């Protein structure tokens, strides 16, 4: 298994298709293309776990600066159902933490659903703590 941060030049039709199929295991929502993510001028890190050019898992971290500091927000962490419980998610999160340390983020935020016990255990094991707050969502585009 190889963990790497994707660059715009890495994106090809095969990666687009694999990520689209992988993401459907996480959500049925409309997806943005990988190339569009790179074209939006935001600071974004896309980490993939690959084996023989097959993407086994993906995780993204968007970075932003606000008055309270330079932060990262992890989203869209998904591991192929046939490769779960093999350390793929852990390696993806470790790579994002390593990246956050390298670019001097103040903190990383993420959210997960209460029933995703394996993800919660992974995040706790990697030093994430439950923040006493609520996340509110207003869907603009359905």
TrEMBL record:
The keyword Acyltransferase applies. One of its GO terms (molecular function) is N-acetyltransferase activity. The keyword Protease does not apply. One of its GO terms (cellular component) is cytoplasm. Coiled coil: none annotated. Residues 1-142 form the N-acetyltransferase domain. Pfam families: Acetyltransf_1. InterPro entries: Acyl_CoA_acyltransferase, GNAT_dom, NSI-like. Keywords: Acyltransferase, Transferase. This is GNAT family N-acetyltransferase. The lineage of its organism: Bacteria, Pseudomonadati, Bacteroidota, Flavobacteriia, Flavobacteriales.
């Amino acid at each position: 298994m190889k963990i790497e941060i994707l660059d715009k030049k890495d994106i090809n039709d095969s990666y687009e298709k694999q990520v689209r199929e992988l993401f459907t295991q996480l959500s049925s929502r409309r997806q943005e293309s990988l190339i569009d993510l790179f074209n939006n001028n935001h600071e974004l890190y896309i980490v993939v776990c690959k084996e023989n050019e097959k993407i086994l898992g993906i995780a993204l971290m968007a970075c932003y600066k606000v008055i309270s500091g330079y932060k990262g927000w992890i989203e869209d962490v998904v591991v192929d159902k046939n490769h779960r419980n093999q350390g793929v998610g852990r390696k993806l999160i470790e790579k994002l933490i390593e990246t956050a340390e390298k670019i001097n983020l103040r903190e990383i935020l993420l959210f997960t659903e209460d029933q995703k016990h394996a993800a919660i255990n992974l995040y706790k094991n990697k030093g994430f703590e439950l923040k006493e707050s609520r996340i509110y969502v207003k869907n603009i585009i359905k």
